Amino acid sequence: MDDRGNAARSLRLEMRGITKRFPGTVACENVDFDLRRGEIHALVGQNGAGKSTLIKILAGIHARDEGSIHVEGRPIEHLTPRSAHDLGMRFIHQELNLVPQFNVAENIVLGDLYPLRRASRFIHWRALNRKARRILDDLSISIDPRRPVQSLTVAEQWMVAIARALYSRGSILVMDEPTSSLAREDVHELFALAQSLAAKGTSIIYISHRLEEIFELAERVTVLKDGRKVITTDIASLSLPQLVAHLVGGRPQELYPTIEADRTLGSVVLEVDRLASADGRLSEISLSLRGREVLGVTGLLGAGHNELAELLFGVRGRVGSGRITVDGKAYAPRNARAAISRGMALVPPERRSQGIVGEMSLWENVILAHLRRFLVDPITRIVSRRRAKSTTREQMMSLQIVATGPDQEVADLSGGNQQKAVLAKWLLREPRILLLSEPTRGIDVSAKAEIYGLVRRLADAGSGVLFVSTEVEELAGVCDRVLVLRQGRMIAEIERSALTAHRIMEACYGG
Amino acid sequence: MTPSANERTSPGVLARLSGIRRYGIIVCLVLLFACFALLRPEIFPTLGNLIAILKQVSLLGILAAGLTICLALGDFDLSVAAVATWSGVMVAALLPSMSMWLAMPIVLAMGMGIGLVNGFFAAVIGISPFIVTLATQTMLRGLTLWYTGGYSLYSGIPRAFVRIGRGTFLGVPYLVYVMVLVYVLIYIAANRMAFGKKLYAVGGNPTASRFSGIHVVRVHLLAFVISGALSALTGILLAARLSSGQPRAGEGLLLSAFAACFLGATTFRVGRFNILGTLVGVLFIGTVNNGLVILGVPFYLQYVIQGAILVLAIAASRLARSRVQEA
Amino acid sequence: MTIDRGSGISVRRRLEDVVLKGGRYGTVLGLLILVGVFAILKPNVFLTPRNLLNILNQISLLGICAAGLTVCLAMNEFDLSVGAIATLGAVLTAGWLPSVHPALGVPAVLAVCCGIGLVNGLVITTLRVSSFMTTLGTMTVLTGFSYWYTSGSGSILYSGIPKAFLAIGKGSFLHIPYMVFFMAGTLVALHVLLNHTMTGRRMYAVGGSPEAARFGGIPIRRLKTLGFVLSGGLAGLTGVLLVARLGLAEPTIGDRFLFDAFTVAFLGAASIRVGQFHILGTLIGTLIMGTIFNGFTLLDVPYHLQLVVQGAILIAAVTSAGLWQNLLQTVRLRAATSRRETPAEEGHDDA
User: Fold this and answer.
1) How far apart, in whole angstroms, are the C-alpha atoms of residue B179 and residue B193?
2) Each residue's pLDDT tens digit, A293-319
3) Which residues 17-46 of A have a C-beta within 8 angstroms of B?
């Protein structure tokens, strides 16, 4: 990376003393944040630290209570989504916000002026495609602008979203957790794109929980904690443990629980023999999972590891060939109910859309998979609130779920606590096999550590845990063994003794 | 492709504790009541009139209760009124030739069957319930017209049957007791029973519910069957009250039922369709109607005022809520 | 319910391809079948140019009303007041034209109806009441108004309507009724709006992804309000033309347009651009309705049976469209995960 650490470089964005209060809480207190021209500036902080509030203020969705904002040196009094857009700010979120019915070209031009024919003022479609093509070429993206956006992969959709930001002459790009749903190789492509944008003068605010990536991509980093700015500094002058320390306060924290060597494992709970999915995305998958074991599964995008957990649980895809046995008896994945009756449980990757019912309370979510246990009697089928709530309180203590009480709406909890609620739900069923699919996605550091501890505790209690993830660091830290998939096939199995993040990465790439 | 049943933004904890926002419609109701009471103090606030209000809304109430269950899932059941009309006609057609204790269950079963058909296309095949029930209600209207030829069926209706629709016990009409019973049962089902948990879980997040082992399709089917059953019950009681099966009986009920449910979704459990809220909505509509009639307002003006009050009431409660939002 | 269905057997794949290409045209196929059936059952009557023009004439008003509704639906908004606005348009026209020249009266009526649409749009976008409830309220208010307005004359207005105006309803140019021209003009104009103007494309963006539209700086409120204005104005036009055709107005005259317009628009969303509300689809839906109505009338089938058939066709159309969409999703899912089967694998015929 060139040396761009010139502090005298012009400030594109300057936020000073930003304060925002909500009833009962202060989301941001006296936060400073600035952004240089052509800079990639990472913004990190745990959930509730104030990142999203700060960004929403920038986007014109919330109005700041105190503080000043200057864009290119000009003070900005009143910010609305429209004026933020006019000032050159572009926001790309997890949900991407592309219009599914449109093709790539129309999505790129969304919100901007379409090229019109001179006489009729109708849309000049060919000119539109040409312009889109030009932008895509500039960014070295090889996607046909006429393709419907629904047919693109997630990584390609991110590219389109970035192309859109650039087309509309965005000068400040805010990327919110871009890599959560991407696999390694796409992440590198994305980073290359971001860096070329920065080289051309675009300023990027990069928000992510993946600390390792920040070291790879960003120039400076700002850490927020409890609504206040902790530090803004050059990445080069910081180490990962120091960064973690700033994030959570206190001494650098051990993220991963210690795993005793030579643990005794239970009997085989899940045996998969040459499993192939009907659509061909998985083939020749063989594994055996024992009780008290945490088995990791990973791979690059398209490797099929994401589908494995959901295939086994019966909620995605169909088995083409192969045999699965659970506790020695044959098992055919049909649907979630069948899987649950065999003692399986799934923590799905998309927490908000697959894991929790946001509008319901904590206790209602916790008992959801095991309503039968909480009936006053089987005839009236009335739920015993008293028992449900007391059980929930037990879970809250045991899993350290932070909430005002069992009645709190789950949507109001932080991501980490929501995930713990999902775990609590399954714990009530005492599953033999726990399938975890990207369990720490989008969760802040301290909650991650707690979840790792929980996973090990669960394993120690007797369950077999299948841990599917693309974060190689956590796999190395939490699992007993790791299976590596590539294009639907198993290519490596890494035992505890050789288990490092580096080794896993190597194996993913076929080394 | 269905209209958004859930209009709210997520309110902060404090906003939900603030009483005014949640009970906005109830406040409106009380205010309205006070207005009418002041304008016609000798007629309006009397016990007899209050009972009359309850009687007038009892059938609307039963219909709206079933609709609430469907709406909790986000399923718009447009066929409730048509099922009621059809059921009224059917029961009137059957009564001359059999005991009413046989005719009524048969018609109820018919209503449940229609609900099952609705649910099948909506939940098993996966078509938007709006369209399914739009189609179903069109077909039912056609069938009703075909069967009755446009005429009312009034011969052979036993007195005992009519007494159900018009009789009273301790001064309160049977219809009101039925409505109260229905609301109690539906309340228990939706708020205390396991079914209710499943209902709101599926309504809130069908995927998460499915992953948790809930039989999503079955929940939808059950909701439509309940709606169909209560619609049929409404139709039966309507026929009892009118002492005839009329092919145009249920017409005004559809939109009023939706209005009551939507009004109800602005109170108690804000943004969610709930049975107590629907009850308030039903009472609200009934009070407005009753008051306007007592004031001697000509019926077309009633329409105007009803419509205006409806929109104003909902708008007001949304405004009151949005003042404290920002999450 | 949308569980990824795999497919490893090639015959099934070929079938899927056929269904894929053909599924979009399911309703068109249905329309052709209907035409065929009626042509066979009433050989010398149905397929005559006169009768076909008759069909177009009969559906022209529904087409205009449904086209306006389609614009709202494209933005995920429901306008339940179209029937009541049509009634209002009719009632006001019949009420004003006896004393006001049509060249003044008709635009005035249209302005009022557009104004109602404006009110709908403003309440929905600024007060954020759902479109369902707002238009429900508007509909109730307008129904009451129409009843009141006609109450003085025993509920029907029919006297004093200028003959020249009535001539529009019955007249034709080159054997094609004026009504059909009105419908054609409306459909073409709205089609161009939605597909070739920025405003229209932005409307689709609002419908397709409201968040994308918001963050893209698209003026959502303005567009939605415009949608309701169009819907209201065209419903009003429907009412005006109703008077031209029937020579009278009464307070239930517009009622059937509500359900019919929705039916037709949803039929349209099951055609060609499946899952999207669009003008061409609405036209197809309208043609289907008109064909049924016409054919059944020729066959002396009573109105109520038409209703039954209408409902059945709606369900059939949407069912097949839904199944088709599932199929499409499956195929797209397969394509999107960068795993392409080599042509060699398709070789074996497992039939």
Assistant:
1) 20
2) 999 998 865 567 778 999 999 998 888
3) 22-24
